TrEMBL record:
Limits of the ANTAR domain: 172-233
Cited InterPro entries: ANTAR, CheY-like_superfamily, GAF, GAF-like_dom_sf, GAF_ANTAR, WH-like_DNA-bd_sf
Name the UniProt record assigns to this protein: Antitermination regulator
Keyword Kinase annotated: yes
Coiled-coil stretches: none
Species assigned in the record: Modestobacter caceresii
Superkingdom, taxonomy of origin: Bacteria
Pfam families recorded: ANTAR (PF03861), GAF_2 (PF13185)
Length: 246
């Protein structure tokens, strides 16, 4: 059987078959996502079904190279491992994943790279780990982490398939984030348009003058322009003023 086939495991041979199967996985991720969070969850579920010997999967964001945030997981283990990395300040996502595309931990409990993290992670039930970099954006990183209870669960084939899957997952995630940003941008534009309309009608201003009022209030109050516009449309009052809708 090939990768992604229901109820089966990936084929050990045939690069063409693997490529076709990964394309199917990529299409499924693109078809299933509705927003970023559902895409993240779909990635974790598909990864466990795709990568040989993977028993759990989690997607971790590292913010400011310090804060570890568990964004999606197939179970409690990935969340607990992320919380451990946050607590002890070390682990795959806080170290080599920044410089390397892949971090493989064959025996979590015996790994010397993270002396405080390793024994506690093993005690939580992690025997093997595979971490793949999904993206790096400034000081923010996204990684996909695979787990197995037994040491030595992931070999070179697992790593190769996992890397191919992570590449497709990164594309699907970028697409979901782009769509979400577009939706937010359109919604913000509508709110600003409504706020401008209120000011234009109430004070007989031009569209340019109304936008200038919003921008000036935003600057004086050190608040985002969209927040000023939203408060105006919600309350009828310009923030910091005493005017209200009749």
């Amino acid at each position: 059987m090939t990768v992604g086939q229901e109820g089966g495991e990936p084929s050990s041979g045939g690069g063409g078959n693997l490529g076709e199967a990964m394309s199917r996985v990529a299409r499924r991720l693109q078809e299933e996502h509705g927003d970023v969070e559902s895409t993240l969850q779909a990635i974790t579920t598909a990864a466990v079904a795709t990568v040989p010997n993977a028993e759990e999967c989690g997607i971790t964001y590292v913010i400011g190279r310090k804060k570890v945030e568990s964004r999606a997981a197939t179970g409690d283990l990935p969340k607990n491992i992320d919380a451990l990395q946050e607590r002890v300040g070390q682990g795959p996502c806080l170290d080599a994943v920044w410089e390397q595309e892949i971090v493989r931990v064959d025996d979590v409990g015996a790994d010397q790279r993270w002396p405080e993290f390793a024994p506690q992670a093993a005690a939580l039930g992690a025997g093997s780990m595979l971490s793949f970099q999904l993206f790096v954006d400034g000081d923010q990183l996204g990684a996909m982490n695979l787990y197995a209870a037994a040491p030595g669960a992931f070999d070179d084939e697992c790593q190769e398939i996992g890397l191919m899957f992570a590449s497709h997952a990164a594309v699907a995630l970028a697409g979901a984030e782009h769509e979400q940003n577009l939706r937010v941008g359109m919604a913000n534009r509508d709110v600003i348009g409504q706020a401008k309309g209120i000011l234009m009608e109430r004070h007989k201003l031009s569209a340019e003058q109304a936008f200038g009022v919003l921008a000036r209030v935003s600057q004086e109050m050190n608040r985002k322009l969209i927040d000023v516009a939203r408060e105006l449309t919600d309350t009828g009052a310009v923030p910091g003023g005493n005017r209200r809708r009749d």
